[in-house]
Amino acid sequence: MNDGDILRLDEDHVWHPYAAVPSTVPVHAVRRAEGVRLTLADGRELVDGMSSWWAAIHGYNHPRLNAAVRDQLDDMAHVMFGGLTHEPAVRLAGTLARMTGLDRVFLADSGSVAVEVAIKMAFQYAAATGRAGRSKLLTVRGGYHGDTFGAMSVCDPVNGMHHLFSGLLPQHVFAPIPPGGYGSRPGEAVEARPDAAYLGELEALVAAHAHELAAIIVEPVVQGAGGMRFYHPAYLRRLRELADEHDVLLIADEIATGFGRTGEMFGCDHAGIRPDIMCVGKALTGGYMTLAATLSTREVADGIGVLMHGPTYMGNPLATAVANASLELLAERPWREEVKQIEAALLDGLAEAVHMPGVQDVRVLGAIGVIETIEPVDVAKIQDVVMGHDVWLRPFGRLIYTMPPYACRPEEIAMITRAMVAAAASL
User: Site (Participates in the substrate recognition with KAPA and in a stacking interaction with the adenine ring of SAM): which residue positions (predicted)?
Assistant: First the structure.
């Protein structure tokens, strides 16, 4: 099928994420992905600054990951997980338990489903332990946890992408957006200190609603699709303390932050805390297959008993096999040094954007680089600019940002930052 046929059929039948039909933003056909580059059907080659929505941390077409899928395919592509088990899923659960300190692993098939499972765990645990009246969650504004109904209910209810559904969703308790300033900014060496007034707000809000809270749910240290904000680990530490003081569970949504993206293996590691429930996904399979997991302490699992959830493709052998290979690869590679080098290159490369008209902020944490604009960006225009620099990015709202593969070389990070600076200049 040629490029024209692909795009015509796409326009006639495909509904893309966060898009109208037909899409008002150009769609580009990809023929191949290799290393950290995408080859379009028209022959153009682009450095992928998005890691395919933050998942392809090792890059594309990796021989170890390819082999894991091929080898598993010879045995079985899928088998139901109800009443049956298999080596790849069991091995993955053991690895995740060792990495997180959370003993029980429920394998799901997407990040949103992992969050749904976490929410159900929290409510079922409250009911099972004699606190059935605890029917609310506490979170912070500016967050994003997924696109299904339970997940949407704990996304930002006003400025998030799901405000159209606000009247249909359960009403939860929202703290203000955490103060920013964590991470690094070009030319700035001083780390922000936690805001005592904000800590006081958290304390008062949890105390006032503790009688109706089953859990607190947050994205640790980084608010992802809700705005790419970085907040001080002290707020996360205090939420852990408050959860303990008021006998409330703490859920950490590590779907975007897990597996090294922020410079630590998990976002919670910045604060030195362990949640009661954790959600992981995205980079779990290195961008190969859809897979997520919801992990809990043994205490939570024992309290719940039978968890009423069961995805058809739960524990899929192909997905769990490649996840095992991806985590082994992550353990072997010097990911911490790679992420530090990416962080330094992002700081250096984005410095030029700091004082540009139309730019509100430039910030970096680990392998995350953000140019926040004053006004919402024209996605099609920005993509034209960055593609003119042989880079693929997907801006949204007021954000021109990158979360590149850890496999990027310095010259490829330089290409990404030049494209971002050019995009900011085009404002």
Answer: 18
Q: Which residues on neighbouring strands pair with residue 278, listed in sequence order?
A: 252, 295
Catalytic residue status for 18: yes
Catalytic residue among 48, 109, 136, 144: 144
pLDDT tens for 380-394 read: 999 999 999 999 999
Nearest to 383 by CA among 6, 38, 20, 9: 38
310 annotated to a ligand binding site: yes
3 state SS of 178: coil
Q: How far apart are CA 402 and CA 380, in angstroms?
A: 17
> Annotated catalytic, 381?
no
312 is in an annotated binding site: yes
Q: How far apart are the first and last CA of the chain?
A: 37
Q: 279: buried, middle or exposed (CB in 10 Å: 19+, 13-18, 0-12)?
A: buried
Is 253 annotated in a binding site? The answer is: yes
Q: What is the dihedral of CA 290, 294, 295, 301, to 10 degrees?
A: -140
> Does the annotation place 112 within a ligand binding site?
yes
Amino acid present at 382:
I
Residues 6+ apart with CB under 8 A from 225: 144, 161, 256, 396
Tell me, yes or no, if 253 is annotated catalytic: yes
Which residue of the set 5, 18, 71, 247 is catalytic?
18
Per-residue confidence (pLDDT) for residue 160, from 0 to 100:
63
Q: What is the pLDDT of residues 202-226, one digit of tens each?
A: 999 999 999 999 999 999 999 999 9
Number of other CB atoms surrounding residue 74 within 10 Å: 7
Q: Is 282 a catalytic residue?
A: yes
53 annotated ligand-binding residue:
yes
What is d(CA 221, CA 230) in angstroms, rounded to the nearest whole number? Answer: 6
Catalytic, out of 109, 231, 276, 282: 282
Can you tell me the distance from the alpha carbon of 123 to that of 153, in angstroms, rounded to the nearest whole number? 14
CB 318 within 8 A of CB 73: yes
Is 366 within 8 Å of 293 (Cβ atoms)?
no
Tell me how far apart the alpha carbons of residues 88 and 90 are, in angstroms, rounded to a whole number. Answer: 6
Per DSSP, helices labelled H in 60-110 are 63-75, 87-100
* Cβ within 8 Å of residue 90, ≥6 positions away: none
List Cα–Cα distances, 418 to 240, 345, 380, 387, 414, in angstroms: 40, 11, 18, 11, 6
Residue among 122, 146, 149 at smallest CA distance from 136: 122
Rounded-to-integer distance, Cα 335 and Cα 118, Å: 28
